[in-house]
Amino acid sequence: MKVRKGLAGGQYKPLSDNDVERIHQTNLKVFAEIGVQVNFPEARELFQKAGALVDPSTRVVKIPPDLVMDLIAQAPSVVKLCGRAEDEALDCEIGGHKVYMGTGGTALNVQDPGDNGCRRSLLTDVMHMARLVEALDNIHFYMLNVYPNDLPVEEVDVNRFGAALNHTRKHIMGGVYTVAGVRNVIKMAGLIAGSADRLRERPFVSMVTCPISPFKLDESYGQLTMEVARQGIPVVVPTEPLCGATAPITLAGNLVVQSVDTLAGVMLTQLVNPGTPVLFGCISSITDLRDMKYISGAIEMGLMNAAAAQMARFYQLPLYSTAGMSDAKVNDAQAGYESALTSLMVALAGGNLIHDAAGFLEFCMTASYDKLAIDNEIIGMVMRAVEGIRVDEETLAFELLKKVGPGGHFVSARHTRRHMRNEQYHPRLSNRDSREQWQEAGAKTTQARATDKVREILDQPPLSVLPTEIKEQLKREIPGLRAEIMA
């Protein structure tokens, strides 16, 4: 099957050029007149030394427009997130209009194959999810999507990344929780790469640290952001302003908060280490004003993340965006239409790295094994839409039309055989049989077929993608690493 990845989006533009410019000018006014509260002293000092105005009593940093633009310009416009395939087939080149889609994080619950309930997620789920991502071709990267509730927080970073590194060759991205965890994950990845320099040349891990909306860099995540930047590892600084709660109710107002917050994180990385590979990040959504809860499957989330793609391109920054989640509790019609609509919108807008696009239900609280397989199918269809329609002499097929003539057919034409496998998306999970054939095969629903696919993958003996000697070295040298994830 043809795997479509890194294709050019950008066909869909919810913002006009004038809209983008007005949001940008408002962003600059926020930086200069309102400012950002920076709660990590070392970060405040860096902003002050660069020329920002710092109020020590409020910890608010106001940044002149020229400084904003100078710092943003230091960040690379393209960031390569590498896999571990020898032919580089698993690499993701993030920037411009290129589109990649994958999992997201971090859910506290999982929904087992064939089940409609949920339970707390465990370290074993990190491994099983990695195995599924490795096997599902349309999922382009593995963002660590579940939290291991059976571990103390001090052991979470190394064991989440370690479990993934041993079970998938695709790029691994994850949120981080402690400075020691950041250092040990990077040390672990360096040992696998062969050296710290080789890891920086071909980074197969990246990390996520989050500013807080509105307009706040907190001490913990500020420290984590600075540590990752010092190490030269790709870092994402995404923000999650919610309309009507931590951002204005209007989508445009949300886009201002979102842009300012993530740009503050981008600037901090460049103050620490100019040229740090960093991604402009958007997780914007809306609030259910009946009870103030976060909504993940809203069409407005698709709109704002599609608009964020335009803002990221305006600043010439690679984008980490969000789509594909559902607020449904089971894999029903709601899960399908919410996931498909937002994924399609953001991909067509050219969202570079679209996370959360595979596996999430219930307000991003539950990672569903079955939904990973279902979303793998949705992503395949979405990427076919991103690919668009190729128009040239070969595809217009005039000579063939002339040869066949009125009333003819194209079934046996060489042209048909030449293009039949690549021109159309061929689903692996969808059912296109007649009703009689479907009934004879057990009349299975989409979720039942997804369950079969998941069990087919997970029933196979687990395969380690790390050499035995590397696993033994990691167990010796990485504090807190659990032996069972290196089996």
Structure overview:
By secondary structure, this protein is α/β, with parallel strands linked by helices. The chain has a domain at 7-15 and 74-387: TIM Barrel. Helices cover 44% and strands 14% of the residues. The chain has 18 helices and 22 strands. It has helices at 17-34, 41-50, 65-73, 123-135, 153-165, 179-193, 196-201, 219-231, 251-272, 299-314, 333-348, 369-387, 393-396, 398-404, 414-419, 435-440, 446-458, 468-477; strands spanning 7-8, 36-38, 53-55, 60-62, 79-81, 92-94, 98-101, 109-111, 119-120, 142-143, 172-175, 205-208, 216-217, 235-239, 242-243, 278-282, 285-288, 293-295, 319-322, 353-355, 360-361, 366-368. The strands form five sheets. It has a nine-stranded mixed β-sheet with strand order 1-7-20-19-16-14-12-11-10. The protein is globular, with a radius of gyration of 23 Å. The two termini are 31 Å apart. 50% of the residues are buried. The model has no long low-confidence stretch (mean pLDDT 97).
Main-sheet strand order equals 1-7-20-19-16-14-12-11-10
CATH class membership of the domain at 7-15 and 74-387: Alpha Beta
Task: Give the full name of the CATH homologous superfamily of the domain at 7-15 and 74-387.
Answer: Trimethylamine methyltransferase-like
Q: Multimeric state of these chains?
A: single chain
Major sheet description: 9 strands, mixed
Low-confidence stretches: none
Indicate the overall shape.
globular
Mean pLDDT: 97
The helix content, as a percent range, equals: 40-55%
The helix-and-strand class reads alpha/beta
How many helix segments? 18
Strand coverage percent: 5-15%
